[in-house]
């Protein structure tokens, strides 16, 4: 049984790999920033992962997960995303309340229970934030969407995913009507470099940074 810390590192490395623009090693600094820990702490853990056969680590180059490491990381991501959806659909929590709860629960539930949750929810394909849910055999779909900042002006869009799950950001999107599945259009740029968004006949403003974290089709 992998420790909580090991699971968190594996999950973070895999998420950075999946979200990255191209295949390649994940740098120590990326992991340190994602986990909010010192680079030296990351280096020590990467050596532990390498010694355990869960990753290959090259100093000054980065880390890649081995097949065993990727399998374990995918299981953790599956647990996390299904727990989030369970909390939303079954307990009625909002999408800005579930991330931290799932972080705590993902290390305690068994894969057997997660499979039961999956079946209970009807084998969903995405979590409350639009991220794809890995199947029980470790397969995961690649999102087909792009940031709102690159969407053509005037053309309709549908919100498919968000890449920032902080409660403050998600509440900000809810206030603007930009939850998963919401439809709208990009009205134009604002004088301060942000974006004017039209949703349900109402206009809202997002900063360029906020708009870059909203994925649409």
UniProtKB/TrEMBL annotation:
<keyword id="KW-0678">Repressor</keyword>
<dbReference type="GO" id="GO:0003700">
    <property type="term" value="F:DNA-binding transcription factor activity"/>
</dbReference>
<comment type="subunit">
    <text>Homodimer.</text>
</comment>
<dbReference type="InterPro" id="IPR036390">
    <property type="entry name" value="WH_DNA-bd_sf"/>
</dbReference>
<dbReference type="Pfam" id="PF02742">
    <property type="entry name" value="Fe_dep_repr_C"/>
</dbReference>
<dbReference type="GO" id="GO:0003677">
    <property type="term" value="F:DNA binding"/>
</dbReference>
<dbReference type="InterPro" id="IPR036388">
    <property type="entry name" value="WH-like_DNA-bd_sf"/>
</dbReference>
<dbReference type="Pfam" id="PF01325">
    <property type="entry name" value="Fe_dep_repress"/>
</dbReference>
<keyword id="KW-0238">DNA-binding</keyword>
<feature type="domain" description="HTH dtxR-type">
    <location>
        <begin position="1"/>
        <end position="66"/>
    </location>
</feature>
<comment type="similarity">
    <text>Belongs to the DtxR/MntR family.</text>
</comment>
<keyword id="KW-0010">Activator</keyword>
<dbReference type="InterPro" id="IPR022687">
    <property type="entry name" value="HTH_DTXR"/>
</dbReference>
<dbReference type="GO" id="GO:0005737">
    <property type="term" value="C:cytoplasm"/>
</dbReference>
<protein>
    <recommendedName>
        <fullName>Transcriptional regulator MntR</fullName>
    </recommendedName>
</protein>
<dbReference type="InterPro" id="IPR022689">
    <property type="entry name" value="Iron_dep_repressor"/>
</dbReference>
<keyword id="KW-0464">Manganese</keyword>
<dbReference type="InterPro" id="IPR008988">
    <property type="entry name" value="Transcriptional_repressor_C"/>
</dbReference>
<dbReference type="InterPro" id="IPR036421">
    <property type="entry name" value="Fe_dep_repressor_sf"/>
</dbReference>
<comment type="function">
    <text>In the presence of manganese, represses expression of mntH and mntS. Up-regulates expression of mntP.</text>
</comment>
<dbReference type="InterPro" id="IPR007167">
    <property type="entry name" value="Fe-transptr_FeoA-like"/>
</dbReference>
<dbReference type="GO" id="GO:0046914">
    <property type="term" value="F:transition metal ion binding"/>
</dbReference>
<keyword id="KW-0963">Cytoplasm</keyword>
<keyword id="KW-0805">Transcription regulation</keyword>
<dbReference type="InterPro" id="IPR001367">
    <property type="entry name" value="Fe_dep_repressor"/>
</dbReference>
<dbReference type="GO" id="GO:0046983">
    <property type="term" value="F:protein dimerization activity"/>
</dbReference>
<dbReference type="InterPro" id="IPR050536">
    <property type="entry name" value="DtxR_MntR_Metal-Reg"/>
</dbReference>
<dbReference type="Pfam" id="PF04023">
    <property type="entry name" value="FeoA"/>
</dbReference>
<keyword id="KW-0804">Transcription</keyword>
């Amino acid at each position: 049984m992998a420790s909580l810390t090991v699971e968190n590192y594996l999950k973070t490395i895999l998420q950075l790999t999946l979200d990255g623009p191209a295949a390649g090693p994940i740098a120590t600094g990326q992991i340190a920033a994602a986990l909010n820990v010192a680079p030296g702490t990351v280096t020590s853990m990467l050596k532990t992962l390498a010694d355990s056969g869960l990753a290959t680590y090259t100093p000054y180059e980065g880390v890649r997960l081995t097949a065993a490491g990727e399998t374990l990381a995918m299981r953790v991501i599956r647990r996390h995303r299904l727990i989030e959806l369970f909390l939303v659909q079954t307990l009625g929590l909002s999408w800005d309340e579930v991330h931290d709860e799932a972080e705590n629960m993902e290390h305690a539930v068994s894969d057997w229970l997660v499979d039961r949750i999956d079946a209970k929810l009807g084998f969903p394909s995405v979590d409350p934030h639009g991220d794809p849910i890995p199947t029980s055999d470790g397969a995961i779909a690649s999102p087909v969407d792009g940031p709102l900042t690159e969407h053509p002006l005037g053309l309709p869009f549908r919100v498919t995913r968000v890449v920032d799950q902080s409660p403050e950001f998600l509440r900000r999107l809810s206030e603007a009507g930009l939850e998963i599945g919401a439809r709208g259009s990009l009205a134009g740029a604002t004088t301060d470099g942000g974006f004017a968004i039209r949703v349900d006949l109402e206009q809202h403003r997002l900063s360029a940074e906020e708009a870059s974290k909203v994925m649409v089709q």
